């Protein structure tokens, strides 16, 4: 037994020396490319060790481990930022070579593991602060899978552009090749055949559709763009596309958006985000506003410096209860550009605020008596108590019949009738009804039972209450000539007491605030097909008044200001109301034209518009093959004459008994994928049918012309 154990130790020692020699030869040549050495502690590995090293550059790093017989047992990839990087390394018992490869460096180190338990080989990233911000912080272990291949990608397409500023690219990882995709995105260069060693935008990881943005581009320049995806096998690329940036002055303006507005009675806090300066530096930026739509720098403005980035500012000296329209602006040599327009109304108040001569006590909610859907309404309390007095007049007990207790008109109705029945005098109802406080169209009155309880509930915010009893305008339903309802403001107890008691009085009245315009956002362009372009919008707020219409407006012209900023007096789809996410389809568009689109929403206060999106109407084209018949089989197909730079994922024909049936409900017969001509056959029907070729890409399904099958009908009953 001792001889056998000695023999194994000799074999292990020889293997270890061989590995050490191999690693030394490679490390001596390449170690200088890393900032510092690779560290594994402890080494030998005792189940799990920490692997650490420092990189000079941001980029993809691949770590692999090989056993002494050359078998790869671990493969791991991650996009790392420059700096210190640490990993947890687990290895089974044995001798291994660990290879680390990245942009600008490649190094190997020998590792010995003395793990006595059965351990699964794996590696996990622990210093998440060095992961690129566009990559998930969750590390992915990529174990080599038998027969794994590199990922497969669709060709990239340009879905949005802003002149010489940037392109938004869409692509799709259609297959991971049998191993997890740890990074995908786009790369670009001014020379053909770009790679991840050039300009890179990392969009994420995994399979499926993704977007990337090529930014900070130069005007009048051709750029070559590819999409890429990385797994344990390596990095694969899509086919290359080339795009030329424009140089027209209409596209040389800055690109910006307006920040959300927080308004009070006399000012509004907002700002803007300058995402691109255009073809020249931004020399001035700020906000402009007016009481009518489309404000410009000829109206009220603030100035907030220059350059790119986020800025904050305020519109001041505003009028209370007034609707304003506001936009951010940015100026360069080409001119002044504007962000999306925001409509708002001042006098956004909260409970406890001094407002219209009183203190805000309550905002009416839906289903409350007094709630009005087209404006903000609520209840005010007088700034202080009106005094202490009795409920009845001249020591006369009278049943007024005013027993209403709710919100809305109850309190005022009670008070008006009590005063009319009891006449002039110094009692609770008259102290309120004939007060000299500002009315703003709403008279003061003695609150009903429920309104008085609201005062008690919000007494701290309202302020100025004693801890004694307060009168309500609600008469008791029992012995109503003698008793009225009151409430103790020390503990909140409600009850009835003799009208002759001297209790405190606090007046109440309604208030109303005019609503602001809705808040709307153009979310995305979801599909570009032969049937049109699908756009999504999100109505984030109704502004305090029901949204009666919303939709998409668009234009193809380009006039100052730099983009057309289409409005509802141009091309329009109005197909929604209320708040939430909506989808609209733009139809009858011209192939190859560039379109400018904005979402809009309208309420009783006016119409507001979202930020603007730009797209070029390009989609793959397929022509339906004329129908023929053979042995009760329909023979047709299609010809993909233009793929518009997109990968054809599916193709075939679809058919329906009625041409009026929505295309989503036509029966599809697939004939594979790809471009060029194809043939599709299927069983004939016992009546004429409508037939169209179709092709599907990541941007949706496009259709060919319609053919009618009149010469291939099965004889028999229908």
Walkthrough of the structure:
- With 718 residues, the chain is mainly β.
- The protein has 6 domains: 2-142, Immunoglobulin-like, CATH 2.60.40.2550; 152-247, Immunoglobulin-like (Sandwich); 250-345, Sandwich (Immunoglobulin-like), CATH 2.60.40; 378-513, no CATH class; 519-616, Immunoglobulins (Immunoglobulin-like, Sandwich); 621-709, Immunoglobulins (Immunoglobulin-like, Sandwich), CATH 2.60.40.10.
- Helices cover 8% and strands 46% of the residues.
- It has 5 helices and 51 strands.
- The strands form 13 sheets. Strands 7-6-3-4-9 form a 5-stranded antiparallel sheet, covered by helices on one side.
- β28 (354-355) and β29 form a beta hairpin.
Counting DSSP H or I runs of 4 or more residues, the number of helices is: 5
The helix content, as a percent range, equals: under 10%
Specify the structural class.
Answer: mainly beta
Strand order of the largest sheet: 7-6-3-4-9
Strand content: over 45%
Q: Which stretches are poorly predicted, pLDDT < 50 over at least 5 residues?
A: 1-36, 127-146, 558-562
Task: Give the domain tally.
Answer: 6
Could you tell me the radius of gyration in angstroms?
37 Å
CATH class of the largest domain: Mainly Beta
CATH topology of the largest domain: Immunoglobulin-like
**Overall mean pLDDT:** 81
Helices and strands, with pairings:
Blueprint: H1 2-30, E1 39-41, E2 48-55, E3 59-67, E4 72-80, E5 83-90, E6 94-102, E7 105-113, E8 122-125, E9 141-142, E10 152-153, E11 157-161, E12 166-175, E13 183-189, E14 199-204, E15 208-215, E16 222-230, E17 235-237, E18 241-244, E19 255-258, E20 262-263, E21 268-276, E22 284-290, E23 300-303, E24 309-315, E25 323-332, E26 335-338, E27 342-345, E28 354-355, E29 358-363, E30 376-381, E31 387-389, H2 410-422, H3 428-433, H4 449-457, H5 459-462, E32 469-475, E33 483-488, E34 494-498, E35 503-505, E36 508-513, E37 519-529, E38 532-541, E39 549-555, E40 571-576, E41 580-586, E42 594-603, E43 606-616, E44 621-624, E45 628-630, E46 633-642, E47 650-656, E48 667-670, E49 676-683, E50 689-697, E51 700-709
Antiparallel strand pairs: 1-2, 2-5, 3-4, 3-6, 4-9, 5-8, 6-7, 10-12, 11-12, 12-15, 13-14, 13-16, 16-17, 16-18, 19-21, 20-21, 21-24, 22-23, 22-25, 25-26, 25-27, 28-29, 29-30, 30-36, 31-35, 32-33, 33-34, 37-38, 38-41, 39-40, 39-42, 42-43, 44-46, 45-46, 46-49, 47-48, 47-50, 50-51
């Amino acid at each position: 037994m001792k001889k056998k154990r000695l023999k194994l130790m000799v074999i292990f020692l020889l293997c270890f020396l061989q590995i050490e020699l191999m690693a030394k030869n490679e490390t001596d040549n390449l170690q200088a490319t890393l900032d510092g050495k690779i560290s594994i502690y402890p080494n030998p590995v005792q189940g799990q060790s920490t692997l650490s090293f420092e990189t000079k550059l941001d980029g993809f790093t691949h770590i692999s481990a090989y056993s002494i017989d050359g078998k790869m047992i671990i493969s791991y990839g991650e996009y790392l930022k420059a700096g210190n990087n640490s990993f947890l390394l687990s290895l089974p018992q044995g001798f291994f070579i660990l290879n680390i490869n990245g942009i600008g460096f490649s190094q190997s180190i020998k590792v010995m593991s003395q793990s006595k338990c059965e351990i699964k080989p794996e590696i996990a990233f622990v210093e998440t602060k060095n992961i690129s911000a566009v990559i998930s912080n969750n590390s992915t272990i990529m174990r080599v899978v038998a027969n794994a291949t590199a990922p497969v990608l669709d060709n990239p397409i340009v879905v949005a552009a802003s002149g010489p500023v940037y392109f938004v690219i869409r692509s799709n990882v259609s297959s991971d090749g049998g191993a997890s995709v740890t990074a995908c995105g786009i790369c670009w260069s001014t020379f053909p055949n770009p790679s991840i060693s050039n300009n890179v935008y990392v969009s994420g990881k995994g399979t499926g559709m993704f977007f990337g943005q090529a930014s900070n581009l130069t005007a009048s320049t051709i750029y070559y763009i590819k999409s890429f995806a990385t797994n344990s096998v390596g990095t694969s690329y899509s086919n290359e596309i080339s795009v030329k940036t424009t140089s027209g002055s209409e596209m040389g303006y800055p690109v910006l958006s307006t920040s959300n507005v927080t308004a009070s009675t006399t000012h509004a806090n907002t700002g803007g985000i300058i995402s691109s300066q255009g073809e020249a530096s931004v020399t001035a930026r700020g906000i402009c506003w007016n009481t009518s739509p489309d404000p410009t720098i000829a109206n009220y403005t603030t100035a907030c410096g220059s350059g790119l980035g986020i800025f904050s500012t305020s519109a001041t000296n505003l009028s209370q209860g007034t609707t304003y329209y506001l936009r951010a602006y940015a100026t360069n040599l080409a001119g002044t550009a504007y962000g999306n327009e925001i409509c708002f109304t001042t006098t956004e108040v909260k409970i406890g605020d001094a407002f219209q001569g009183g203190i805000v006590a309550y905002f009416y909610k839906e289903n409350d008596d007094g709630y009005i859907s087209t404006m903000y309404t609520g209840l005010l309390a007088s700034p202080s108590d009106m005094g202490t007095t009795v409920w009845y007049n001249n020591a006369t007990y009278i049943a007024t019949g005013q027993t209403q207790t709710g919100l809305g008109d109850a309190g005022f109705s009670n008070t008006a009738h009590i005063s009319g029945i009891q006449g002039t005098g110094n009692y609770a109802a008259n102290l309120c009804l004939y007060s000299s406080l500002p009315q703003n169209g709403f008279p003061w009155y003695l609150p009903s039972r429920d309104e008085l309880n609201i005062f008690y509930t919000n007494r701290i915010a309202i302020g100025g209450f004693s801890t004694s009893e307060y009168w309500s305008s609600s008469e008791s339903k029992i012995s109503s000539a003698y008793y009225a309802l009151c409430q103790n403001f020390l503990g909140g107890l409600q009850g009835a007491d003799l009208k002759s008691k001297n209790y405190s009085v606090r007046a109440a009245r309604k208030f109303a605030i005019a609503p602001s315009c809705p808040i709307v956002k153009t979310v995305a362009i979801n599909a570009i097909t032969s049937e049109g372009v699908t756009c999504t919008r999100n109505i984030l707020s109704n502004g305090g008044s029901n949204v009666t219409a919303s939709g998409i407006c668009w234009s193809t012209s380009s006039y100052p200001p730099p983009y057309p900023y289409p409005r509802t007096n141009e091309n329009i789809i109005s197909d929604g109301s209320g708040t939430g996410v909506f989808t609209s389809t733009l139809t009858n568009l011209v192939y190859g034209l560039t379109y400018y689109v904005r979402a809009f929403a309208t309420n009783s206060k006016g119409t507001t518009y979202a930020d603007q999106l730009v797209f070029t109407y390009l989609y793959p084209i397929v022509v339906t093959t004329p129908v023929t018949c053979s042995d009760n089989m329909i023979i047709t197909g299609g010809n993909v004459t233009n793929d518009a730079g997109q990968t054809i994922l599916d193709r075939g024909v679809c058919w329906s008994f009625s041409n009026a049936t929505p295309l989503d409900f036509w029966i599809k017969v697939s004939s594979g994928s790809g471009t060029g001509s194809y043939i599709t056959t299927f069983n004939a029907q016992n009546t004429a049918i409508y037939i169209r070729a179709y092709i599907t890409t990541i941007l949706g399904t496009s259709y060919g012309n319609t053919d009618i099958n009149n010469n291939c009908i099965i004889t028999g009953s229908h």
